[in-house]
Amino acid sequence: MISLKNIERFYNQGLQKAWVLRDISIDIEEGSFVTIMGPSGSGKTTLLNIIGMLDQPNNGEYYFFDEPVHKFRERKRTELHKHYIGFIFQAYHLIDDLTVYENIETPLLYKNVPRSQRRAIVADILDRFNIVAKKDLFPHQLSGGQQQLVGVARAVVGKPKLLLADEPTGNLHSTQGKIIMDTLAELHKEGITIIQVTHDENNIKYGDRVIELWDGFIKNDLKTAEALSASQ
Amino acid sequence: MLTNYIKLAWRNLIRNKNYSIINIVGLTIGLACFMLIMLYVNHEWSYDKFHGDGDQIYRVGLERKYPGRSRSYAIIPHSYGEAIKEEISSVEESCRLFFFGGNNFQFKIEDQSYEESSFMWSDSTFFKLFDITLLQGDPSQVLNLPNQVVLTESAARKYFGQSDPLGKTILPLNQNQPLVVSGVCDDIPENSHFKFNILISSSSLGPFLQQPNYLSFSAYTYIKLTENTDPEVVERQFPDLVVKYASGQVLNHFGVNYEEYQAQGNGYRYFLQPLYDIHLTSNLEAEMRVPGSKSRVYFFCIIAFMILIIACINFMNLATARSAGRGREVGIRKTLGSNRLSIGAQFLMEAILISLCATVLAWGVTSTVLPYFNTLAGKQFILQDVLQGRFISMVIVVALLTGLLAGLYPALSLSSFKPVEVMRGQLIHSRQGRSVRNGLVIFQFSISVFLIVASLFVYQQWLFTQNKSLGFEKDGVINLNTTGALDRIESESFKNELLRLPNVIAVGGCNSQPGQGYFGISFKANGANEMTTGSGLIVDEGYIECMDMEMVTGRSFSKSFMDTLSLVINESAAREMGLEDPVGKRVTSSDNFLNTVPGEVNNYTIVGVVKDFHFQSLHHKISPLFFVHNQRSLLGAGIDNQISVRISSEDVESTLASMGSLWRSMESEVPFSFTFMDQEWANLYEKEITTRRVSSLFTIIAIFIACLGLLALAAFTAEQKMKEIGVRKVLGASSLDIVTMLSRNFLKLVIVSILIATPLAWYAIKQWLTNFAYSIPMQIWPFIIGAFLALFIAFLTVSIQSYRAARISPIHALKDE
């Protein structure tokens, strides 16, 4: 599904290059649940953004379903991104002025889904995430866990093939975090591919593969079980 | 503490350069406009204020009543000046001025010929009444005798150079009596409702003044009341005066006694106009100079304030919009023990500092653009006007008020933040702040839309006045100004010679041109009870044809007839006299100069009716007009001293050249001088042209400042919504979606503005158009254009900002703190 070849990402700092990612090559199968780990500044989020087509590598090749994303123009990338990828953020990033319902509806608006279909899809999702009662509330009226639940709902409402989660439980306490992770696990079971960035060891076990970054390089790329035993 | 405030305010200005620049630029332009308009308005208000006792001086105006209508004149019968002074004890002094527009005064000094366009006749009391300083000569002697003149200082220098003009003589052409210079006075200030370079003693006007006249109007009559006299008390005594003096003449001329005459609906109502108010409020028939207009002064004042308010609103909006950023500062200050007052003072100081900066800059701008403004507004301001103490103090007051106005709301709103809330990053105010900002943006754009629509109408009306068929053809007519130098026989042969020139189509003589003002004249149809007063024009046989006027019935004057006692009238005159079939009807006049033998009334016969044409600007309805044949008019009103030539549009230069050489072959002393009639006609609309120019310029400026504010606000909104934009882009929004999202709210505000401004503009324009006797109808399209223009400009402004915001990569926007 995803094939990264020799991806490099750097920023120009005066005359020097500040490297963020170096020589990253990964293949990710459809249906897998990958965890990206690493200390702060190791390039996790940048990698996630490149995979999510929000950021572009300076060098290297990126194939998404065998399509050469690195050769695409922005418009084409946006199209791909819009139809295949959902995003979950650590800080939820719900739109303050929109209700829960409207927040979830937004991706469908940009996919030009007709109104009646939108209503059905959103109703479905609300029902599924058990937040029907909250649909007319604004984000600031919800707890953090609830907000992130809405964030997940919004990420999957467009039925993406790939779900990218950047520290989805980073701002939550453990019970709330568990609910979110359980939800992700359930989505994974349904066949969606998930890539998560996390610090939290507890979250690793939900996935089947762990990629560990160190200063922009891949340090380890292991099955979850191996990774867990290695760290112990 | 104060220096601390100023220091902090200054740092804030420097730190937020972009906002400061937008604020200062907006305020500078706003204040500069304000200063310029105030210069103009000040000047308009200052008219005649230089007369020290001006509050005691009044001009006597006349409302002449006819059955069912009336007309008001600035001139009254000449014998009233004396009568009023004698009869009413609280009248200290009176003075009459005589001024006949359109004529040039031609004279010789030694062997040199001159021509002067600005001259009047006056009673000897002139220098007692008016504060014009007599530099040479004895105030009680200068105008006492016939044939005395007073020159203004610059006229004296022009005509006599360095030599002492006192006692020197001026010889008018076509007159034997020389005039003697008896005094020299200060130049008449520009802000005076009368103006002259030469002032001639009224007794020089000859016998016409010696005959008592209480019926026909000729004199601008001024009276000075004793201190603390209520003018209304004086006005109340006028009716008795009219009965006493005029009723005899009424009986003589109309054959009815005055009571009966009044019962028919006729009458004379005299009223007083304060000297100080004449320029701005009086717009009577026969004003000496084009009067100002109070409504225009108000209109300009309103524009000036509007622009200033728009600029202030920018400041308020930006200050409160940024309050989120400064909330933290307020919170910290409050926890450190500063109270609301000192925080408010801090923000206020910032506003005042900005407004003072802007004032200094605006001063520079005003001084720089002064020459351009002069051309625009038709005034002659100089740098000193901007440096006057009064003006400076006014500007400082305005600057402080501007700072207060702009700073007060932000100061109040920001200083009310509760420290705990703002430190936690919650801004309860933001929603309320936003609605205030929206309201202010709506206000700004309402003004802009209003101004756009109004300017379009002003322009349309101007075009209309330029293009409306006047009833005569003004294009292609050359007016020769100096032909009064010729005597009658010379004049006839000159006209004949002109006609022989190639490219000369027609030639006509008259005493005054359309737009220059005609003298008043009245006729009574035989058998009718009332006189019809209208305008009089002395013409020769060629004039009506030369001007391409259309004869409705009958004939124009002709050399094949004996036309000395013939009249040609216009349609309005026929209508007002109640003549269904005017040709051949006989009429009489009470005017002295039409009855050559005193006491004997001549019968005139109407020979033709000319189609109504506009001999005044389109502010005035067409009124009755009587053409008198040039051989009849020997006295008083002058002769047909102007010659008009209609030429073909081919080879205008050489036609003018051959006319010039023809002139020099006949008259070597007076230079050849001419004007194009269409240009002269355009001068009648000076006021409209000024209004049009000023309103369109300030409209553009107002919109510019409003857009400047919108630009900053859009930038701010984009900045504030950075996160949301990022999220939406991650959710699949395209740049276009983002631009639409950001622009939509602003465009909604503009649409609301359009809805508010349209009915107001409709009403105001309707009012304005009533100033014109002939005006364009109300139309929809300027409103549509105005609306679209406002939307378009606003969209352009906002979308530039929005597009920039939409291009920013979402990963930057979403980076967590």
Tell me about the biggest sheet of chain B? 14 strands, mixed
Please provide the count of β strands of chain B.
Answer: 25
Cα end-to-end separation of chain A: 31 Å
Return the structural class of chain A: alpha/beta
Mean of residue pLDDT values of chain B = 84
Overall average residue pLDDT of chain A: 89
Work out the strand percent of chain B: 15-25%
Can you summarize the main beta sheet of chain A?
6 strands, mixed
Q: What is the count of DSSP helices of chain B, taking H or I runs of 4+ residues?
A: 26
Instruction: Choose one word for the global shape of chain B.
Output: elongated
Please describe what this structure looks like.
Chain A is α/β, with parallel strands linked by helices. Chain A has a single domain, classed as Rossmann fold (3-Layer(aba) Sandwich). Chain A is built from 8 helices and 10 strands. Chain A has helices at residues 44-51, 74-84, 100-110, 115-128, 144-156, 174-189, 201-204, 224-231; strands at 2-13, 16-28, 33-37, 59-64, 67-68, 85-88, 162-166, 193-197, 209-214, 217-223. In chain A, strands 6-7-8-3-9-10 form a 6-stranded mixed beta sheet. A 4-stranded antiparallel beta sheet of chain A has the order 2-1-4-5. The mean pLDDT of chain A is 89. Chain B is of the alpha+beta class and 817 residues long. Chain B folds into 3 domains: 2-43 and 293-465 and 686-813, no CATH class; 54-281, no CATH class; 477-683, no CATH class. Chain B is 50% helix and 17% strand. Chain B has 26 helices and 25 strands. In chain B, strands 1, 2, 3, 4, 5, 6, 7, 8, 9, 10, 11, 12, 13 and 14 form a 14-stranded mixed beta sheet that branches. In chain B, a hairpin with a 2-residue loop joins β5 (105-109) and β6 (112-116). In chain B, α16 (429-467) packs across α24 and α16 packs across α25. The radius of gyration of chain B is 34 Å and the shape is elongated. Residues 634-638 of chain B have low confidence and may be disordered. Classes of the chains: A alpha/beta (232), B alpha+beta (817).
